[in-house]
Amino acid sequence: MYELFFRKFNEKVPLTHEEEEMIKTYLTPKKLRRKQYLLQEGDVCKSIAFVEKGALREYSIAENGNEQIIQFAIEGWTISDLYSFLTGEPATYNIDAVEDSELVLLSKSAHEELLRKLPKYETYLRLQVTGAYLALQKRLTSVNTLSPEERYANFTQLYPELVQRFPQHMIASHMGLTPETLSRARRKIKSK
Amino acid sequence: MYELFFRKFNEKVPLTHEEEEMIKTYLTPKKLRRKQYLLQEGDVCKSIAFVEKGALREYSIAENGNEQIIQFAIEGWTISDLYSFLTGEPATYNIDAVEDSELVLLSKSAHEELLRKLPKYETYLRLQVTGAYLALQKRLTSVNTLSPEERYANFTQLYPELVQRFPQHMIASHMGLTPETLSRARRKIKSK
DNA sequence: AAATTACGTTGACATTTGTCAATGAAAACG
DNA sequence: CGTTTTCATTGACAAATGTCAACGTAATTT
What we know:
Number of helices of chain A: 9
CATH architecture of the domain at 3-116 in chain A: Sandwich
Distance between the termini of chain A: 47 Å
Structural class of chain A: alpha+beta
Strand order of the largest sheet of chain A: 1-8-3-6
Oligomer: homodimer
Radius of gyration of chain A: 18 Å
Shape of chain A: globular
CATH class of the domain at 3-116 in chain A: Mainly Beta
Largest interface: A-B, 32 and 32 residues
Number of strands of chain A: 8
CATH topology of the domain at 3-116 in chain A: Jelly Rolls
């Protein structure tokens, strides 16, 4: 249990066995069936979720009713509505499972206590959020500087497993395109 | 000197006088004239810059030669090519001054030493990067869910000072629009 | 195994945005 | 103060993307 969680944690910040045992007392396992919600907009995000197994997506609903996916998460990844988690404000995003999934949850109070007790946890957080920030920055830059074809080609190269496990219309949503436009972009790539 | 820097720092993480004096030994002041580069793409970003006075922009060059502004910074804000700073890789972005500016620089080695010596610095970083991440996430979501008119209206409400101090074509660039499209969006807003 | 649902592709057409160029006003420069 | 540069707006036209609908295939459900 929590194998992958600690493997990923240790990749960023090495833990002693005692530290791992301590952190374990703050973790909660959770299973989700495909299509089951982890979080609905308007509720407060009570936990940060780490994916031990499975696949999830985080999305908001645009004014026209369309879903806009802001993030995917597969094994080894973390997912939450971070603003809601940190502030206790109602969540903007929905999170649901695209495949049957097994998660490791860390609650707000556990998060706060670990911040007090374990400096390594703060380092881990800083590194996690920094990585997430840099990925988002790169993504926003590419939206404004690259064509859909270039962006899709980059995406399949960077995240081949996401392309395999999520339907194409979700990839399109994540890229801010309609399924039709992505289909046309893929056609253009093939003809080159 | 460094007044605003420590005011902002203390808003996030309160420092003792001794701690402030210690941090001061790691800071370097720098002045920039309008249009002067702080960082050019291809160079390594050697410092994180805090703005004591003035205004800067960070931008990349798209394949078609257009500038795409990813970030502005005015008094109290921080600016850098963070990936380049952390990894020593060549910078993707350019940073230059839109107004004559006074900065407070923190070098990579100072950053690393402060991380070792002062746990409060790590907390400050975590909080800084978390805020930056949340702002970027919100921005990317709005790109895909709101019209240019709505986005501009939000932007002027959230950042009135940016709208006053940066020319409109730079605001357009930051929004991922051409100046013409932003002008049309503003006309639409006025006719409502 | 049959029925149903989900998915990806495609084309016609509508809408939005970018490109180009011109104009006038404001700001900056000498 | 005169000259030059920068900026914002506008319109015509081109290009890109969204919307709608239909179709065939694959996956899921019954």
